[in-house]
Amino acid sequence: MSFASILTSKTFWVAFGLVGQAAFFMRFLVQWLASEKAGKSTIPISFWYFSIIGATILLAYAIHQKDPVFILGQSAGFLIYFRNLWLIRKTGQSASD
């Protein structure tokens, strides 16, 4: 089996999509754990990085699937994710905030 056939195989794309879903799940897990540790609702910086990673992978999957609804849904989040990281950097919040 050639490298090109592996990249176009359904199994690869399903696994790739599942990795994206796992990254998206991780953002909720780290948020929950950070909130439990702080004793209040909080969103750690890693939440935004996992959001970007998950959205990037899922967007690639959606493009491969040629699903305009999924493409639009994943694309829209990037503005929010990057804006929040920019605001965090601008205000000088630490990784533990």
Average predicted local confidence, pLDDT: 89
Rg result: 16 Å
Helical fraction: over 70%
DSSP summary: helix tally: 4
Question: What do you see in this structure?
Answer:
The chain has one domain (3-91). The protein has helices at 3-8, 10-38, 45-65, 68-91. It has 97 residues and is mainly alpha-helical. The protein is 82% helix and 0% strand. The mean pLDDT is 89.
In short, what is this structure?
Helix content is 82%, strand content 0%. It is mainly alpha-helical and 97 residues long. Helix 2 packs antiparallel against helix 3 and helix 3 packs antiparallel against helix 4.
What structural keywords apply?
single chain, 97 residues, mainly alpha, 4 helices, elongated
Topology:
Elements: H1 3-8, H2 10-38, H3 45-65, H4 68-91
